[in-house]
Amino acid sequence: MKIKFPDSFLWGGAVAAHQVEGAWDVDGKGVSIADVMTAGGNGIARKITQGILPNEYYPNHEAIDFYHHYQEDIQLFKELGLKAFRTSIAWSRIFPNGDEEQPNEAGLAYYDQLFDTLLANGIEPVITLSHFEIPYHLYEVYGGFTNKKLIDFFVHYAETVMKRYKHKVKYWMTFNEINNQADGQHDLHTWTNSAVLLEETDNKEEKIFQAGLNELIASAKVVALGKKINPDFQIGCMMAYVPVYPYSCHPDDMMASVKVMDRRFFYSDIHVRGEIPAYAVNDWEKKGYKIQYSQEELDALKEGTVDYVGFSYYMSGAVTTLPETKGAAIPDYPNAKMVNNPYVQASDWGWQIDPVGLRYTLNVVYERYQLPLFIVENGFGAYDKLEDHQIHDPYRIAYLEEHIKQMALAISEDGVDLMGYTPWGIIDIVSFGSGEMEKRYGFIYVDKDNQGNGSLKRLKKDSFAWYQGIIAKNEVSV
Ligand code: BGP
């Protein structure tokens, strides 16, 4: 059966400033928390340090130097036939410390040139305001989003760039994978979101929920402000949806799955419905958490609900309460453990490959919110091999093809309103989880290794022509 995508469907690709740009201290840019993270890899968690690490630890100081290569790269994106290109603005390029009144003109000018080049090549910019980064100064002096002052600093930054680019950028989203700090709850060292820096403190969960709520309030204020700047703006949230299935049909496994998903839906429920869910208020009261919020902030949440739900989808998970199974204990339900799903394969990094899970997620989220959905990350990280100046990546084509088929079924069979698809790592970039180059996602290879060696030469992989064909046909056979 052939399924056609809507003519308006936004076929694109996604990256993030700190994983692609480099030029980390160029043209007045301030230090970002992304610039002071240790590299991870081999299961080592990345951490924020108290200062700048020497370059050898740190390939993403220079990333793939998109800052100086973007014209060349956008020609490749145009050749692919992209309709949209998702990236983020590095907050510390615009406000180096984050608490200044006046912006850094050189930072604003860079993004003017980037957006002009995209638009001149028929590509819509899709812009994330904070993609896992805030100016390091806002962490060092204010403590990140645990401090409500960050709300005003973020609103000032967002207002500055939304006004500057109001005739160039139509699609915005506020915080990348805003829920990941909660997911990181079970392994606090893994995730450093723009909300909190996950240090060794005793009241971690209370801090994480306070920071998350402050981010949600900041996001809502920006949505309301953005609609005043340009009523045509489409401003979304951005969630990491990893559906967690009950491992068995034991009723406790089902309840554990609901509780784990509540930890994710907490964020998008507030982004979409504009109020703090009863299950969260109940949870905080039970735990004695003193989460601070005013009536003015509750009103702001109500006024600043999003236009679409953006999300990343890579994998699914499973949870069980059955005593005989082994897994990482989680706090969401008595005796709950995260376990592998025996019915799916996993990538070299253990990410469970589940294309049907994408169709399931599209159905669940669309039924929950009845808003347009936007898949702004989906991709297959792998060890690609350069052989005779070619990269054969059938595994990446297979992964993406199966996920695109499920998207098509969600649209045609299930009636989901899906506005676009920007697969992650349209070009090889630095892995967030490891800070290294070897976990490659791109349709375009970049000659750079974990130690930062290489010519930065760009090379089309086999998947480049494949994706080009998908976009040109705008349909798939399932
Ligand atoms: C998501 C982030 C992206 C990207 C992606 C892949 O959580 O939003 O920034 O990093 O994960 O993860 P990794 O780079 O660790 O393979």
From TrEMBL:
Extract the GO molecular function terms from the UniProt entry: 6-phospho-beta-glucosidase activity
Superkingdom in the source lineage: Bacteria
**One GO biological process from the UniProt record?**
carbohydrate catabolic process
Q: Which UniProt keywords apply?
A: Glycosidase, Hydrolase
- Entry coiled-coil feature ranges: none
SUPFAM superfamilies under this entry?
(Trans)glycosidases
Q: EC top class, in one word? A: hydrolase
Record bears the keyword Metal-binding:
no
What InterPro entries would the database entry show? GH, GH_1_N_CS, Glyco_hydro_1, Glyco_hydro_1_AS
Q: Which family does it belong to?
A: Belongs to the glycosyl hydrolase 1 family.
In Swiss-Prot or TrEMBL terms, this protein is called: Glycosyl hydrolase, family 1
Lineage, broadest ranks: Bacteria, Bacillati, Bacillota, Bacilli, Lactobacillales
